[in-house]
Amino acid sequence: MDRVFEALFTRRRRMILFMLKQDSPRPIVDFLPRSVGAQSTETELRHDDLPRLASLAYINWNRAADEVSRGQRFDEIEPILELLANHADELPDNWPQQ
User: Fold this and answer.
1) Phi and psi of 32, rounded to 5°?
2) Percent of the chain at pLDDT exceeding 70
3) pLDDT digits 0-9 by tens, 37-58
4) What is the pTM of this model?
5) How far lies 17's CA from each of 1, 10, 45, 59, 72, in Å?
6) Taking Cα atoms as reference points, which of 88, 62, 57 lies closest to residue 75?
7) Which one of 4, 20, 27, 95 is separated from 62 by 20 to 30 angstroms, measured CA to CA?
């Protein structure tokens, strides 16, 4: 369970996992904002979020292709993602969003 909570700790990691649940593989640009300040976000993505999710085996990060896909343990976290998605309307208004 600690692995799951570590993976879901930040909004960006949750977004990556939810996006991979919908479609895998995905180019890294799919995970970047299209606004000012994207450079710092890209740095955090490449130096924190992607390596951490890869070390947990929830994603595979192909650096050469700049592509991310579901990892060997993705099926471990997928039920939690399903639960969050299916019951989002039942959560309190101030509950952290995806």
Assistant:
1) -100, 140
2) 89
3) 566 788 889 999 999 999 999 9
4) 0.85
5) 16, 11, 13, 8, 13
6) 57
7) 4
